[in-house]
Specification:
It is elongated and about 60 Å long. Helices cover 21% and strands 35% of the residues. By secondary structure, it is of the alpha+beta class. A hairpin with a 2-residue loop joins strand 3 and strand 4. Helix 1 packs antiparallel against helix 2. The protein has 2 helices and 6 strands. The strands form 2 sheets. Strands 2-5-1-6 form a 4-stranded antiparallel beta sheet, with helices on one face. The chain has a two-stranded antiparallel sheet with strand order 3-4.
Length: 117
């Protein structure tokens, strides 16, 4: 099994999840609200004549657990769907192998099954 992880801008979360389901058929995902920054290093705001810098920007962390043969399609779909058209700040997507995946309730291994939530 492969764990596909992504950091995306919050506005693209639903778009990414819908695209993964539509393009690959995979429906299981974990979403965690996050903050952070990449090369853009945050943004500057002006409020009532004062300038404020926000070092960290709102992001979302997505995690998909998929079968090996589906991983590249999920990575490609996430990258395409997360693209906002901005010069920077759209986030990252990556994949890593995982082992010993089992159901909490039954203790049975997940190997050979397609993860569906």
């Amino acid at each position: 099994m492969i764990k596909v992880e992504a950091v995306v801008i919050r506005e693209r979360v639903e778009t990414v999840i819908d695209a993964v389901e539509h393009e690959t058929g995979h429906v299981g995902v974990t979403v965690i609200e996050a903050i952070g920054h990449g090369s853009q290093r945050g943004v500057t705001h002006e409020y009532r004549g004062r300038v404020f810098e926000s070092r960290f920007l709102p992001k979302a962390y997505l995690m998909f657990l998929v079968e090996d043969d589906l991983a590249q399609a999920v990575v490609d779909t996430v990258a395409d769907a997360a693209r906002s058209g901005n010069e920077s700040g759209d986030g990252l997507v990556w994949a890593s192998p995982v082992r010993n995946v089992m159901h909490n309730r039954t203790g049975s291994p997940l190997a050979g099954e397609v993860t569906r939530s």
